[in-house]
Specification:
heterodimer, A: alpha/beta, 20 strands, globular, B: mainly alpha
Chain lengths: ~550, ~375
């Protein structure tokens, strides 16, 4: 269906090709997953299927890409629109109209499909994607998962033979992600659609893939094969595969179900029996159930009985007619890492906003380091609490990293060079003259983090920090945040990434519809929740193992 | 139709509040073009008179129809109030100018006198301050009221039918232009949201989030973001088939261009004739000829675009009634302005109290027809 013949793409002004030696074929009706670290050209490969590379982006494409027999050199994207449906990383940038039904019809209108056919397909697609209730809704009022489904629906209605998706689940909560993936699987199984998708969160998608194409980067040619073959050599892999590698299973398990069977059959359970996961010790053992458990890596600071850094009491916030938050209580102690989890739109970002004074409480109180955030001058507040927003770019104004650092020092009243020092620690090898826009997603996050940390706030908030990060960047972030927590920083992260929460958090707070529905130690909360449990927990349940690292240490 | 409109609308409202939202569509909304024709016709009617009583009646008619017929949940339904405020502001500005700058209208009834500012001789003909006469004020009031009524009519059109939906029913040849306008219309809210988000982000950097400097400093990132988003949108639209075109012979293309251009010129000339008092004779025929030529051009141009339309709003009997009611008001008032100019333009010098001319007032009331034929949607 899709054929890459020795394709290499060089963008204008780039010294090296973005991808080269891409040579594989996607047969009809298969779901093929494109994996690889950030910056290895996944988006380039995806966009060359729809013809956007090179027709829209410019640059030189060598070799040949054919889709359903059409050569993308001679067919412009609009002439491929009837065979290829493309959804980019940000569904909002994809919408042309303002209501769900019109959006579903838009593509068909451009293709000149007969009105009666359009009507039928819109109804079918509404049912297929579970959007019937939302048909008249304005797109701006939809949640992230709903938007992603509308975006998929909007390219599905012209019945393309090929669907190309760039990170369809990375902005979604676990439940919404499963919804979207279930739809994709249905398309592949029932309609025979060919799907090519790229995704960083392999733990969500690898089990659905028929084949995996790995772009290793550094100019190496892509590796193509079954998921088990490719995962055996891939530098990026989900926890289930990592556990399989650790236990030496072959072939590697791709699903939690496979791995559970192996764990019993291959004796991993016996080897782990009697061992207890190493506890993450926090300063605040008020939440602890940990009596009797061996104390883990010592925090090393005498922060044991310090007053809470942040205190939220029966906080309520209204947004229009909706209660964004109601009756929320939360305390955060020094040295503690708290993960806020819950659906898209559950109120996580609003709670972070209230802690940093961006959102004024409707009722209830918020205190951070003794101050009321929304009444405190920004200059003083940055010394108490810092937030890295969902889009780290929002924090960056200057056109070079050096200028950004100098500005951060001035804003925070810190000694010149403070921020640059932090940047060098977090991001070795980034030159002063680099434009923040040219940094990768992970590097930009690190720069924003350094900017926020320049004022040395004891409370650090991160909103969805792992969106768009590959496993390596995520591992670096985890290391940095652990170090900060060990230094006594309190960290609150709002995240959909259950694996990140399992790695980092001492405590998990679950939000739903603006209320706190669970608050407790990570292993208590995630073990009992099917959608928020990390893969290792699911594999080794009912034992309370959270991460591969814990298992590795226990086996060592 | 025995139920008076007010009773009827209450009845609908109560049923709507009590019953859960009905599944499916009861009836498709009236064609947006019909609403625009109705509103603009009322605007034309307003431009034919300066009688404050008739103008007030026109405003009342639009207000009532908007209150009964608009879709309450739609975001554009609030634009009537915004336009009404704008109209009031225009009226007040018109009055203020008369007070401060004086008026060429001669008058005998001096209400009060402002101290006159002596101006150098090169500013002759301009007056600052001085006598303010009742005649001048009344003239300004009538004039301002007419402009205000026009604005209110445009506001009614906006509140009753989304401009985006109207653009959707443009002929095929104008479709791409229509999409560009729709995208621009949805872009403004995004831009506002971006500015708010970035100003909030300034707070996170420890800089004040208010003040003009804050706004200026986020300007560049906001523009960058808007630019990036429009590039992404353009890519998405291209990939979804925007701008696919069919091949047409050169002769057809040239004819299209000639017809469209000539037609548009004709429409401009005709409108000018209609709106100025001198050109009453040639205005209408030229306008109609221009419109016909332009429509033919558009129809021919539509051959270039292979696109089809999803669930177009049908132009049904209600649409005929709505647009017809508006057209009747405009036609009758135009007729009245020719037949009985004194009733429609009450005298200012000498000052007389305006009276309500009976049959033009009855004609204006025809504009209420949509409130009867278009039931309010249960919300």
């Amino acid at each position: 269906m899709i054929r890459f013949e020795d394709v290499s793409v060089t963008y204008e002004g780039a010294a090296r090709p973005a991808v080269r030696g891409v040579d594989f074929e996607v047969p009809e009706g298969e779901l093929v997953l494109l994996v690889g670290p950030s910056g290895t050209g996944k988006s380039t490969v995806l966009n060359s299927v729809s013809g956007l590379v090179p027709h829209f982006t410019g640059g030189t494409l060598r070799g040949r890409v054919t889709v359903a027999g059409r050569d993308t050199r001679t067919h412009r994207p609009r002439e491929l629109a009837d065979v290829v449906g493309t959804v980019g990383q940000d569904p909002l940038a994809h919408f042309v109209t303002d209501t769900v039904e019109d959006e579903l019809a838009y593509g068909m209108e451009s293709l000149g499909i007969a009105p009666a056919v359009m009507r039928r397909r819109v109804e079918e697609t509404l049912d297929l994607l579970g959007l019937a209730e939302l048909r008249d809704r304005a797109i701006a009022t939809l949640s992230g998962g709903q938007r992603q489904r509308v975006a998929i629906g909007s390219v599905l209605t012209p019945h393309p033979a090929v669907l190309v998706l760039d990170e369809p689940t990375s902005a979604l909560d676990p439940a919404a992600a499963e919804e979207v993936l279930a739809v994709l699987q249905r398309l592949v199984h029932d309609l025979g659609t060919t799907v090519l998708l790229a995704e960083h969160r392999l733990e969500r998608v690898v089990q659905y893939a028929d084949r995996v194409v790995l772009l290793p980067g550094d100019g190496a040619a892509p590796v193509c094969g079954t998921p088990a073959e490719v995962m055996a050599v891939s530098p990026v892999c989900p926890p289930v595969v990592e556990l399989g590698r650790l236990a030496g299973w072959s072939p590697l398990p791709m699903t939690v179900r496979d791995a559970r069977r192996r764990a019993t059959a291959a004796g991993l359970r016996e080897r782990l029996a009697g061992r207890v996961p190493e506890q993450r010790s926090t300063a605040d053992h008020a939440v602890g159930h940990a009596a009797g458990h061996p104390a883990g890596h010592a925090v090393g600071h005498a922060v044991g009985h310090a007053a809470p850094l942040a205190e939220v009491r029966s906080l309520a916030v209204r947004r229009g007619r909706v209660d964004a938050l109601c009756g929320v209580d939360l305390t955060v102690a020094p040295g503690e890492t708290v993960a806020l989890m819950g659906r898209n739109g559950a109120g996580k970002s609003t709670l972070l906003g209230a802690l940093v004074g961006l959102v004024e409480p409707g009722s209830g109180t918020v205190r951070v380091g003794g101050a009321v955030p929304h009444r405190t001058r920004p200059r003083d507040l940055v010394r108490l609490v810092g937030l890295v927003p969902q889009e780290p770019r929002d924090l960056l104004y200057a056109d070079t990293v050096g200028a950004e650092c100098a500005a951060a020092d001035r804003d925070a009243g810190a000694a010149p060079g403070t921020c640059r020092g932090l940047v060098s620690g977090l991001l070795p090898g980034v030159a002063d003259g680099t434009h923040p826009r040219d940094l990768s997603e992970g590097q930009r996050l690190a720069l924003a983090l350094a900017v926020v940390l320049t004022a040395r706030p004891p409370l650090l908030l991160l909103d969805e920090p792992t969106r768009g990060l590959d496993y390596a960047a995520k591992a670096r972030l985890v290391g940095v945040l652990r170090g900060l927590a060990a230094d006594g920083h309190a960290i609150v992260l709002a995240t959909h990434d259950v694996e990140l929460a399992a790695e980092l958090a001492h405590r998990v707070v679950l939000l739903a519809e603006g209320e706190v529905i669970a608050d407790g130690p990570t292993d208590d909360i995630v073990v009992s929740s099917p959608s928020f449990a990390p893969q290792v927990t699911k594999i080794l349940a009912p034992e309370r193992w959270l991460t591969v690292a814990q298992v590795r240490e226990a086996l060592a | 139709m025995g139920v008076p409109p007010l009773e009827r609308s209450r009845e609908w409202g109560r049923v709507g509040a009590a019953a859960p939202r009905k599944r499916g569509r009861v009836k498709p909304p009236v064609h947006p073009g019909a609403w625009w024709l109705w509103s603009l016709s009322l605007g034309v009617a307003a431009s034919r008179t300066t009688n404050p009583l008739l103008l007030a009646l026109l405003v009342t008619v639009t207000a009532y129809v908007v209150a009964v017929c608009r879709t309450r949940s739609a975001p554009w339904s609030r634009s009537y109030a915004a336009f009404a405020r704008l109209a009031l502001a225009v009226l007040l500005v018109r009055l203020a100018f008369t007070v401060v700058l004086g008026s060429p209208v001669p008058g005998a009834h001096t209400l009060f006198a402002l101290p006159e500012v002596p101006l150098p001789h090169w500013a002759q003909g301009i007056r600052l301050g001085g006598r303010v006469t009742a005649e001048a004020l009344v003239f300004a009031l009538y004039d301002g009221l007419r402009i205000a009524t026009l604005l209110v009519c445009v506001g009614a059109a906006n509140a009753l039918a989304s401009p985006a939906r109207l653009l959707k029913s443009l002929p095929g040849a104008l479709y791409e232009l229509g999409v560009a306008v729709v995208v621009a219309l949805t872009f403004a809210p995004h831009l506002v949201a971006d500015v708010q988000r970035l100003r909030a982000a300034r707070r996170l950097r420890g800089r004040p989030d208010s003040g003009i400097r804050g706004l200026l400093q986020v300007g560049l990132p906001v523009l960058e973001g808007a630019l990036e988003r429009s590039v992404a949108l353009a890519a998405a639209m291209d990939a979804r088939g925007y701008g696919r075109s069919a091949d047409v012979p050169d002769r057809v293309r040239r004819t299209t261009a000639a017809l469209t251009l000539g037609g548009l010129l004709g429409i401009c000339a005709g409108l000018y004739g209609l709106l100025t008092t001198e050109g009453g004779g040639y205005g209408l025929p030229v306008l109609l000829a221009g419109a016909a030529a332009a429509l033919a051009g558009l129809r021919l141009g539509g051959r270039r675009s292979p696109r089809t339309r999803y669930r177009p709003d049908p132009w049904d009997a209600r649409a005929w009634l709505v647009s017809g009611a508006g057209a009747a008001v405009a036609a009758l008032l135009t007729l009245a302005s020719v037949r009985a100019p004194d009733a429609l333009h009450p005298g200012v010098v000498p000052l007389v109290a305006p009276t309500l001319p009976l049959w033009p007032a009855a004609a204006v009331l025809l504009g209420l027809l949509p409130a009867l034929v278009v039931p309010k949607e249960p919300s």
